[in-house]
Write a structure and sequence with these properties.
Blueprint (H helix, E strand, L loop, with lengths): L10 H18 L1 E5 H21 L3 E11 L9 E4 L2 E4 L1 E11 L1 H13 L3 E3 L12 E3 L1 H12 L8 E8 L6 E7 L1
Antiparallel strand pairs: 1-9, 2-5, 3-4, 6-7, 8-9
Length: about 180
């Protein structure tokens, strides 16, 4: 018996479909799909959530000094003339950042290798490239999803049967994060 469902697709098609459905599950919180696909997506998603729970607090806060351009009241950069050239004036600013420890970094990269990037386009700027925003699902996994499930010992998703699909009578289900 095989270790996974083939879902009537070639290996590359199956991998792309499962990656897409796992990405959509984490982005939206629930998806509607067939029962066989949901069972495959569930196992992958639960492994990723478990990994995020294990590594969620594995970082250190570091204070760094960076240079930031000084701006005037209108939000434009302040420039001074030095040796006949206009040069932007920079200020030193201290910031506190989270620095991943090696095991969390490895977990983050493992998630990034599997999940697709999600580009969000605001409704008023539809069709324009300028105001798009790329969402980082690994941050969402570590910061939002993992803290919800810290006290749980598995079972982070739920499959709810909806009914038969009209075209081919396949059992449709809703796969959602609990």
């Amino acid at each position: 018996m095989a270790g996974y469902r083939k879902l009537g697709r070639t290996a590359s098609q199956r991998k792309a479909m499962l990656r897409n459905q796992v990405t959509c599950l984490f982005y939206n919180g629930k998806i509607v799909t067939t029962e066989a696909r949901a069972k495959e997506v569930k196992s992958i998603a639960e492994k990723m959530i478990t990994l995020a729970i294990k590594e969620k607090d594995n970082f250190e806060e570091v204070t760094v000094t960076t240079k930031v351009a000084r701006k005037d009241k209108d939000g434009k950069r302040v420039k001074n003339v030095v040796d006949g050239k206009k040069v932007t004036v920079f200020d030193d600013v201290e910031k506190t950042i989270k620095k991943d420890k090696p095991s969390k970094l490895a977990a983050r990269r493992k998630m990034l290798s599997y999940l697709y990037k999600v580009t969000e386009v605001p409704a008023k700027n539809a069709g324009k490239k300028k105001a798009t925003k790329v969402n980082d699902l690994t941050d969402k996994l570590f910061d939002e999803i993992a803290p919800k499930y810290v006290s749980r010992q598995g079972g982070y998703t739920r499959i709810v049967k909806v009914g038969l699909r009209k075209g081919d009578a396949a059992m449709e289900v809703i796969l959602e994060l609990i």
